[in-house]
Each structure stands twice: as C-alpha cells, then as structure tokens.
C-alpha cells in the first residue's frame, strides 16, 4: 500500500528537504489522522518538520501543516504542537489576509490552545519582531 | 486509506491550473488563493469545501437550470452569482453552497468539465468562503470520519478486550492496567496512557505487580522519554490515591464505557459491511473492470479502501457462512426443481432444452 511505503520514508524525507513539497505535506495531512500513522509520526519526531513547514513560502504547504499539527495534537504531543513559537505563529496567521489560513489558525488557537497560552504568545509578540514569517501571497 | 481521500491527482489539479491560465489579474488573489499556477495535486481537507465555484456558465440567464443540475447531487443551502469575479466574456461565475461536503465532492466530480448550454463548466472548491465555524466543523467531521473508520478496525480489538476487562476487574486491581496496555491500539489511547501512567507515578510503590504496567505497553521503551510530559501535562487522575481500590475502577469504567459504545456501534456496522461486501461481489460478477469500486467510493465518500475490506474478511466468517447457506438453499431448490421436472419431461426433450437456454 501507498501508506506502507510513504510512512517509513517520511522521517527520512522531511529532514532532507526543509521545503517539503506540496504533495508530501498535503499527503501527510491526509494520513496523519489514522491512529497507526499518528503514533508512528509522533514516535519518529515528526512534529518538528511539520512545524518547520509553517515557515514555508508556499501557502498550501503552510495550511496543510497547520491542519497536520491539529490532527497530531494528543495529550502527549501537545507540548510540542502548541509550543510558544507555534502559538505565536498561529496568532500571526490568524491576522492574515488569506481567509483560509486565518480560519485555520483561528480554529487552532481556539480549539487546541489554552487561553493562557494564547495570552502568553500575544504578549511575547508585542516585544519581538522576529518570528516565523508569513507565507508570501 | 486516508491517502486515498485525495480525490484527484492530475485531473482536478489540471482544472485548477487551467483556471489560473485564464489571465489571472491581481485582484483575484484576494478571492481565490488556491488557484495558483502551482498545481494542486493533493486534495486535503483544507482544499475541499462545501462551497463550489462554478465558472464558464453562459450568460443566458440559466441560473435556475444550473442550480437544478447541481441540486441533483445534494441539498443546496445557498447560491448566488459572483458578479465581481473576473470572468470570461459572455460567462458568469456562480457560488453554490451545499449542505454536505460529500454532495459537493460528488457534484464537483460530475459537473466539472461538463458541457452546459454549450459552454464548458469549470467547477472548483471554494474554501475561502467558509466561515471559521464551518472550517472547524469541516476539520472535526474529517476527524470523526476517520476515527469511525479506524474504530471499525479497533472494534475487533476492543471486542476481545471487553470480556477480558470485566474478568480482570473481578480478579485484581492490577489487571485493568494490563488491559490498558492493549488499549494502546484504540482511540482511547491518550486517556489510557495518561491515566495509567499518571497512576503509576502518583501511586509510587503499589504492589509489585504494578511495575509490570510499563512493560506491557508495546512502545514502552520509546515512551520513556515522553514520560516527562506526563508529569507536566494535566493528568486526568489527580485524585488518584495510593492503596485505593477505587482508583482503578473509575478509570476502568471510563474505559469500558467507550468500549461499550464501540460494541454498540460494532453491531450495526456488521450489517453495513455485509451489504458492502455483497454489493462488491455483485459488482465483481458483472463488471470486468472494478467500476463497482468507484460506486462504493461514491457511497462511502472519502475513500478508505483496503482497511475495511481486510476487517471484513476477519469479521464476516459468519456472514459468509450464511451467504453460502442461502446460496446452497437456492441451488438446492433449483436442483430439486429440475430434478422433479426431469422425470416428468424426460420424454419431452424440447422442454428440457428450453429450460437450459433460459
């Protein structure tokens, strides 16, 4: 099966290319909901590459990454997926002119982050100008 | 599998690219971000939407007919023309909002590149028209759908676990933790993990049996590093006290509750599986190419092919037996009929021949 081939290769592919191809991130978004895949991805430290994809210049990749992070959030991985830089990033996305992206980011902030987390990120972003860049339109 | 949910590879992507080639102007970017020159080959939940954008509708005042056409595929909530959208000369652009994503999916598949009053329609998803709540619902529906589909597989595990759990409750406190290890495969994994790990941390030195619990988890070694998270994350069992017979039971009860739900869901599901299997068998009989597979895909929606089939094979030993029994009955009836007729019409051969033709 396609998955059987893709999933084992996933940890190798992502570290290799920071600019994950659109297809790969999209495919990941599709299959990360399945329990076995989710466990595998979490076990293989797959959250980090997904977070890196948030910085991609390709907006489709970014959106797929946001959705993947949502689906990969479990009580165990929550620390990683809702880390401060991520929440910060989502805050900025939620203000994006790109409606799809802002919707996704808003859902992420509302459903997957606690209000204190959002508050913390909001305070932080007031101080720092450097952050994960928004995707180019 | 979930990857199969990408409903198109080159086809829809080409259609989207094709749209982009129609002289995209700058103002378009605000409306439609997805129609980039970059081909979108993988359909994710993000890209699919209940909203469909239809271009290339001839400006002949055919809105009513258009909506009627699309209404064949499902209930439509809203529709209107997008006058501000850049369109070719003599064409109009419409937005149609379906009540269900599945209907939108089917409608897009069928109506894209279809001739309508002499003009080719271009149908695309338009997720940028969604509200936040609609996006949220969309994502949750997808999650539920896959949970349901994978639950179907996990139910087989849980069904076996169910009786084990009830027995273990009686036998001892540590046994629930044994079965909770098997819970790792189920969807209640997070609660199982945090619950039992939390308890093993909080309880400290229980009976020596409890120490077996880390060993039971299949990924016990891997999760040892994440055990640090357990300490930090909000444990659902803060109230667990050491040396209490009660702590295991409420958690075990929590676990049995979802399992009971799984069992309830499990029962009616077998009938669905039986029907699907029958349909597939019929389809295989009649079609050389697996077009029946497409039909089932349409019925099921986001295609989750192989896994359910495998499960059916595991599960439907009984159903196949009943099917065989039914068929045997049919054959026996037909055989008895022909055997009865044969002595009667043994002389009348033309009659027998007629029957054979039929």
Shape of chain B, please? elongated
- Overall, the morphology of chain A is globular
Order of helices and strands of chain B: HHEHEEHEEEHHHHHHHHHH
Q: Number of DSSP strands of chain B?
A: 6
Structural class of chain B: alpha+beta
Number of domains of chain A: 1
Protein chain pair with the most extensive contact, residues per chain: A-B, 43 and 52 residues
Content of β-strand of chain B: 5-15%
Describe the structure.
The complex is a heterodimer of chains A (about 140) and B (about 350). Chain A has about 140 residues and is an all-alpha fold. Chain A contains nine helices and no strands. Chain A has one domain. In chain A, helix 2 runs parallel beside helix 5 and helix 7 crosses helix 8. The longest helix of chain A has 15 residues. Chain A is globular. The N terminus of chain A is likely disordered. Chain B has about 350 residues and is of the alpha+beta class. Chain B is built from 14 helices and six strands. Chain B has a four-stranded antiparallel sheet. The longest helix of chain B has about 40 residues. The N terminus of chain B is likely disordered. Chains A and B meet through helix 1, helix 2, helix 3, helix 5 and helix 8 of A and helix 5, helix 7 and helix 9 of B. Chain B: This is RNA-binding protein 48. Chain B: Keywords: mRNA processing, mRNA splicing, RNA-binding, Spliceosome. Chain B: As a component of the minor spliceosome, involved in the splicing of U12-type introns in pre-mRNAs. Chain B: GO terms for molecular function: RNA binding.
């Amino acid at each position: 099966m396609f998955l059987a081939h893709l999933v084992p290769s996933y940890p190798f592919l992502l570290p290799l290319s920071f600019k994950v191809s659109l297809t790969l991130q999209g495919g990941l978004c599709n299959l990360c909901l399945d329990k076995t895949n989710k466990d595998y991805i979490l076990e293989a430290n797959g959250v980090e590459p997904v977070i890196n994809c948030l910085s991609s210049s390709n907006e489709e990749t970014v959106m797929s990454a946001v959705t993947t992070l949502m689906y990969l959030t479990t009580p165990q991985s929550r620390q990683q997926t809702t880390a401060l830089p991520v929440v910060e990033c989502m805050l900025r996305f939620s203000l994006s002119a790109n409606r799809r992206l802002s919707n996704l980011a808003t859902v992420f902030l509302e459903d997957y982050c606690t209000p204190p987390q959002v508050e913390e990120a909001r305070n932080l972003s007031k101080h720092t100008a450097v952050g994960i860049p928004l995707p180019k339109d | 599998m979930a990857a199969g949910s990408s409903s198109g590879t080159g086809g829809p992507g080409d259609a989207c690219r094709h749209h982009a080639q129609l002289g995209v102007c700058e103002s378009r970017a605000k409306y439609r971000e997805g129609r980039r020159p970059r081909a979108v080959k993988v359909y994710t939940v993000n890209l699919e939407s209940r909203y469909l954008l239809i271009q290339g509708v001839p400006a002949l005042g055919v809105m009513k007919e258009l909506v009627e056409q699309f209404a064949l595929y499902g209930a439509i909530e809203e529709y209107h023309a997008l006058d501000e959208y850049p369109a070719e000369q003599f064409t109009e652009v419409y937005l149609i909002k379906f009540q269900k994503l599945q209907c939108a999916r089917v409608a897009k598949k069928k109506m894209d590149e279809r001739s309508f009053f002499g003009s080719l329609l271009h149908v695309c998803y338009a997720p940028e028209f969604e509200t936040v709540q609609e996006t949220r619902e969309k994502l949750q529906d997808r999650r539920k759908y896959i949970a349901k589909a994978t639950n179907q597989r996990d139910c087989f595990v849980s069904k076996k676990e169910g009786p084990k759990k009830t027995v273990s409750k009686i036998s001892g406190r540590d046994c629930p933790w044994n079965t909770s290890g098997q819970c790792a495969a189920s969807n209640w994994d997070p609660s199982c993990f945090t619950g039992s790990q939390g308890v093993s941390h909080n309880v400290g030195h229980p009976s020596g049996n409890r120490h077996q619990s880390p060993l039971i988890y299949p990924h016990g070694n891997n999760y040892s590093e994440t055990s640090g998270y357990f300490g930090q994350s909000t444990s659902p069992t803060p109230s667990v006290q050491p040396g209490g017979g009660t702590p295991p039971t409420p958690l075990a009860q929590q676990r049995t509750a979802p399992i009971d739900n799984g069992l309830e869901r499990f029962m009616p599901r077998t009938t669905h599986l039986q029907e699907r299997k029958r349909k597939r068998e019929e389809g295989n009989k009649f079609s050389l190419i697996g077009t029946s597979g497409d039909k089932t895909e349409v019925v099921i929606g986001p295609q989750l092919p192989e896994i359910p089939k495998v499960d059916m094979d595991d599960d439907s030993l009984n159903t196949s037996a009943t099917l065989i029994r039914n068929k045997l009955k049919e054959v026996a009836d037909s055989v008895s009929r022909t055997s009865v007729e044969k002595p009667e019409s043994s002389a009348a051969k033309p009659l027998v021949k007629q029957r054979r033709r039929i």
